[in-house]
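Deviations from the work plan: none for this task. Representative record:
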Amino acid sequence: MTSTKQNGEVRIGYFVCHCGHNIGATIDVLKVADVIKNLPGVVISREYKYMCSDPGQEMIQEDIKEHNLNRIVVAACSPLLHENTFRRATEKAGINQYYFHMVNIRENASWVHVDKAEATRKAIDLSRAAIQRVFFHQALEKKQVSINPNVLVVGGGISGIHAALTLAKAGKKVYLVERDPTIGGLMAKFDKTFPTLDCAACILTPKMTEVKNHPNIELMTYSEVEKVSGFVGQYKATIKRKPRYIKEDVCVGCLDCIDACIYKDGKYYDEFNVGLSKRKPVYIPFPQATPQLVVFDPEACVRLKRGKCKETCVEKCDRDAIDFDQKEKFEEIEIGSVIVATGFQIFDAKKIPYYGYGKYQNVYNALEIERLVNSSGPTGGQVVMRNGEVPKKIGIIHCVGSRDEKTNIWCSRVCCTYSVKLAHLLKELSGADVYNFYIDMRTPGKGQEEFYNQVMREGVHFIRGRVAEVTDWAAEKEEQGKLIIRVEDTLIGVVRRIPVDMVVLGVGVEPHSDADKIRRLFNISCSTEGFYLEKHPKLAPFDTASDGVYIAGGCQGPKDITDAVAQAGAAAAEALALIDKGFIEMEPNTAFISEDNCSGCKSCIPLCPYTAISFDEEVFKAKINEVLCKGCGTCVAACPSAAIDQNLFTNDQIYNEIDGLLKYEIV
Amino acid sequence: MTFSFLRTRKWKYQKPSRIEQDKTVRRRIKYESELDIGFREKIAKMAWGERLDSCMQCGTCSATCPVSHYMDYTPRRIIDMVRQGFKEEVLNSFTLWVCASCYSCTVECPRGIKITDVMYALKREAIKQGFHPKRFLIPMLASKFYKQVLRHGRQNEGRLILSLYLSANPLLLLRNSKLAFRLWRRGRMKLFEKGIRNKASIRKLLSSIERREEEPVQ
Amino acid sequence: MKYIYYPGCSLKSTGRPYEESLLAVFKELQIPMEELHDWNCCGATSYMSVDELKAFGLAARNLALAESQNGINGNGDPDVHIVAPCSACYLVLIKTERYLKEYKNERKAVIKGLKTIGLDYNGKAVIRHPVDVLFNDIGLESIAKHIKKPLKGIKVASYYGCQMIRPFELFDPVHYPVTLDLLVDKLGATPLDWPLKTRCCGGSLTGTLHEAGMRLNYRLLSEAKKRGADMIITTCPLCQFNLECYQDRISSYTGKKIEMPILYFTQLVGLALGIPEKKLGIHRSFIRFPNFQALEMEV
């Protein structure tokens, strides 16, 4: 253990934690402390029940002073949790925090093993590796980077709206990017919200208007984030602005062009009414759309498709706002942090053929019902089915696409409650007999169970059982011409056939089909189901593993409006905390070049993703800009003459760590 | 438990079948001491029975089953009774024998439980432990079939049904005689047919494949 | 490549017309096929209820025989394709193949047993249903080339039954299979869209739990009739038997007269290919399709 890089005599203090039973039950902590005590360089070796507690930290500090320690190794939980705690304690006792090293013997040993002897051995091996490593630790200083106070919010649903408003109110400049022509998201399509039956539009549209009018918010609708580069505090994003074929600053939203269109009636799929009505090639998604701007659908507009049309719309527009020559534009913005609030999509019920969605016209999904019962919807709030009749008996099927290994395995969390709400609304509006088919009724949250109870008392039937089939083959006379729901009433233990006029599928929610593409832009990980992964499921559900990138709302997991808004507020507050600090401290894990060894081959330069490496023609050597270097290590591995080394991961540190790891004794 | 539905001679189609009700007042309680704790594990260890524990009692199996309305316990209840160790009720149940192996439940189960294969496992267990109802045609058919194949290597439908009805209820033979005659006239039924050439090989093969009790499916 | 034909017990008795028509159609389409020598019963559903491992052993003997018949043990053609027309046989063989692949100890025990009678099993045999062969190997287009009498004006309900398509999704979607309907369409007839095409006929329950079996068949027959089917085609001898042979009894139970011709799909193909009725075993049916004569006149 001799090296020129050792600065003076190395005196190591080793501290191993029981973490209550978390480590202590599986690992013989006393033995570990005992074995490590005898290793070269170790001055003191101690164990303690909770190393992270105040007495534990004080113990380390006192030992540093008393025994004149200059290296500290703590074997405990994950560095993600307590590395900073111990670094601070080390620094307080007067030595540089990078002389401290943490060994994870909880997640890496005690939690993943059952054999006590073997787990103990592993803990010893990991600790020995750390002891050999710290010999080569050096005093380093954190670097500081300033923060651009602008924030990018991706997604203009209720989460994005709320986050943007919170930030704007705090005086920060916000870019709100939405890919649809209007903000509002899914919530804008809802009729009433559970469990209070607040009108969704009445509570949402004021917020939408506020977004439009707020001086700190730059609203970019019909736009998509195309490219993101940089790092926390200094991101650059390229935004694609899709052409509306309308001059946004000239159009006042009089909608005269829509009336003037050569199509007298709607002919194309209306996205906002999920296909229950038709729209024209020029349209506005819904009356309260924000911004109040029309859009030309290039797939439908005759002028845009064929280049020739009577252009009655242009004639009618007295402000000359229509511009068929508009092209896609790309704008670059600079921001310091990002809130991703891209939401979820509903499950496509066509994937479950035995429920007959798309085959029987009177089978609807829940979103279609939201539009159907909405007073501004395609039927003006009348419950009239596609065949023109008013249903007398309605079946609502829960868990469509959820809790099923063949589709989505998770519980979508909102379907039970929205199904109860739809049962109430459908019964109220049509007077029909409503049957709800559920597997397990999940109505957690304030006021939800009470609402469920109220709807039960309104006479809605609740049958526990997953529907096996919706079919039109009649076995009995009264089933003729109806849709028959076949289900086991599991609480009674009998199979029932229930003929209904209308079937509502309580479809679950899932990540957007292109969620993966967006996630890669921002370097966010995802869970197995595809929802964006939070930094910690309990304590940081709005944070991600990418610094300065936060998530909120449905993109992180199924949730209702209440939770989405709460999470958006939390993400905004987190971003504010980052911005108002003004700078961030970065780990000093930058790479550096030992000029003696650099041959000037330039192979590292094109590899650096942060363009941190330049070439000094005078001395014919590469040079690394410490401010730009993110410590990814690519150049270190690529350098053919091993001239590049990286702080915190020097060759000496890693080789000695491996050496320590392999020096196990056969027990 | 009654066999009443088996005795039905004529059924009037218009009348939906009534749920059989037990008119006698009976005390019903299950004590832990009456349960068979190891039953669940035993069935779960048989082929493709591994996922029993993930059943969420949604009833898709029962609702999709074309014959569940002839069962005393729906498939869903059988699954839970197996899990809870209600061995006697399960092995005595008609449900196992009514199952026609159409695999609808296996295909639809949202938890991927291979219910048809669980039913097979229960049938084997019931035959092995002598639980199935006496003179009940379905398990009898299974064992007649088993013996005939063991002897001839092939199965002869005419003779199989003949021997089944003879030992179960000769009246059934009478009732089906017309059908048998019509089949015979069209050359679709023979009472005598050669088995395979090498009959001994079948017996040798089957006797060499014996699974020892203590050796569960891994 | 030569297909190996595994008839199973039913095709030699109640399902004789199926065998006759299958062989005739394959011959007409020049598909080489030879019967598996000394095949034995697959074990069907009954065997599985008594002893699982023996049931797999019994079925595995056929697979092993097929492999040796096609010279799998030598360096010969590794393509062993067993054609199993009976849906029960088809599924039992497939299940055996999968089971022996999945469970190691059981595979060892079965192969050990096979060795005692001088056989070996390598897991190379592929089990095919004739529908699969006609649809995927031969192709509808080349069948169409052989059609001599397009079956114009007949409405055909395709009945897929259970075990050909469940539980493994092999060549047709489990919830809504289409192969037979496409075939029917190609033959010139009109395929009927009906929701019961995969609903169980009761299998052996017709003989053991009579009422249940009758009711299931009644549902199928009456629904097909209600939707205007002229005939039902099946792919399994037991389905065909159940649907056809109990019709008079169902009629007397319900008081509704049902006369629905039940044909094997191969018989229908055979008719379109212009094979004489006698060769297709049509004369063995209980219920005759009245218009076949007229059909022949048409051409």
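Chain A has five domains: 12-142, 151-242+330-343+527-580, 244-325, 345-510, 591-646.
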